[in-house]
Amino acid sequence: MLSLTSLGGAGTVTGSKHLVDHDGRRLLVDCGLFQGLKELRELNWKPLPVPAASIDAVILTHAHLDHSGYLPRLVKEGFKGPILATPATIDVARLILLDSAFLQEKDAQFANRRGFSRHHPALPLYDKADALRALAHFQAVDFHQPFDLGDGASLLFRQAGHILGAATAELRIDGRTVVFSGDLGRYDDATMLDPEPVPHADWLVVESTYGDRLHPRGTDPATELRKVIERTIARHGTVVIPAFAVGRTQALLYHLWTLKTAGALPGVPIFVDSPMAASATDLMCAHLGDHRLNPQDCRDACAVATYVRETEDSKKLSANREPKVIISASGMATGGRVLHHLKAFGPTARNTILFSGFQAAGTRGRTLVEGGREVKIHGEWIEIRAEVDDLSMLSAHADADEIMRWLGGFEAPPARTVVVHGEASASNALQGRIARELGWSATVARMGERVDLDEPAVAR
């Protein structure tokens, strides 16, 4: 019997954890943190429905927190197997997991100092030592190199685009093929490679982050970015860009470099205020085969900004009212240094808060892009009078048409397609398009529901 159970990333874009069971063997594809809505975040504190020690291996499609961020907790709960990922994903995961542990420790300390947590004392989900123990389990698997999982099973990674090291994962188990899309990137992206086609799958698990939406067509991201910055600078304001430290920050730097090279934005200082983003930018030039940039362009694009690593320098940046651009993590404004910049610049109308990626339900980013004018930060409500913009064409996620384009690369329909990693409206919309346009039988995953992959699919 071969089965799939989504322990996360079903009905939501966060907490991706997809458990494959086969004759007593367990493989977990991705192991992410829940983010956003409180009821989702509280799931991070609950034990998995299966014992961590019963999982034989974790397969990591990429290093974003919603796919990797639960790994230290998994190891803490008793997981002892390997964590298989591409070399670039391992390098990025080291940054993300150590940063996640650091932020959780700092947030717990801050909550205890200010007394706004209902827990006494507030504790981190995991700490640096837990993150380091998880990192010791990583094992590199190169793209396009079949990896023997034992007992007749194998793994194959292909390029997914999206971010550095991101992969689709093909599992061959007992003569059957199960493919996981992970998070698919954009076609013709300025920096990242196209998602590679996959010729065959008996069963397919596909993401649906933008399953009900399209990114703007016919608009140049750099031009739109320039417009936002120029009108903010004209009113002597600062542009604060909450950006994922891996992927979006580097893409933003590339577009800003092209603008500066063309003579635009003269005299506008650009700051990257995120130690993790600074380190991730260094990794771009260390993994040249995972993106489009040549060595010189990579170095030049990365050098367009001033990098802020020390906490005291970050505080000075918040206090500085001179016009500028600040790129700071996190991308959905769920934590990190960007919160201090939102508190400093959000209440003033001359400034701009600019989003450039998906904002999950329940996050401060989602509240702001949907028109909310008040967000809670560090236990206090902050009124937002700044201009709020969302340049969705800068997203690293494939939109609905691009997902359908990738699905069109299969040489024959999978026997079963399971739609995951999307809010309900997005997953249902993509399931409908798959049925109408491709004629495939597809289902939408439900959290905790076991799907027997040997049984015929019934669309819902």
Category by helix and strand content: alpha/beta
Quaternary structure? single chain
Can you tell me the CATH architecture of the largest domain? 4-Layer Sandwich
* CATH level 1 name of the largest domain: Alpha Beta
**Whole-number radius of gyration?**
21 Å
* Largest sheet: number of strands, sense, barrel closure: 7 strands, mixed
Q: How many β strands by DSSP?
A: 22
Outline the structure in words.
The structure is a single chain. The protein has helices spanning 38-41, 65-68, 71-76, 87-114, 128-135, 221-234, 248-261, 275-286, 295-302, 311-319, 338-345, 364-369, 400-407, 424-438, and strands at 2-8, 17-22, 25-29, 57-59, 83-85, 138-140, 147-150, 153-159, 167-173, 176-180, 203-207, 238-242, 270-273, 306-308, 324-328, 352-355, 374-377, 380-383, 387-390, 416-420, 442-444, 450-452. The protein has 460 residues and is an alpha/beta fold. It has 2 domains: 2-213 and 396-452, Ribonuclease Z/Hydroxyacylglutathione hydrolase-like (Metallo-beta-lactamase, Chain A); 221-394, 3-Layer(aba) Sandwich (Rossmann fold), CATH 3.40.50. The protein has a 7-stranded mixed beta sheet. Strands 7-8-9-10-11-20-21 form a 7-stranded mixed beta sheet, with helices on one face. The model has no long low-confidence stretch (mean pLDDT 93).
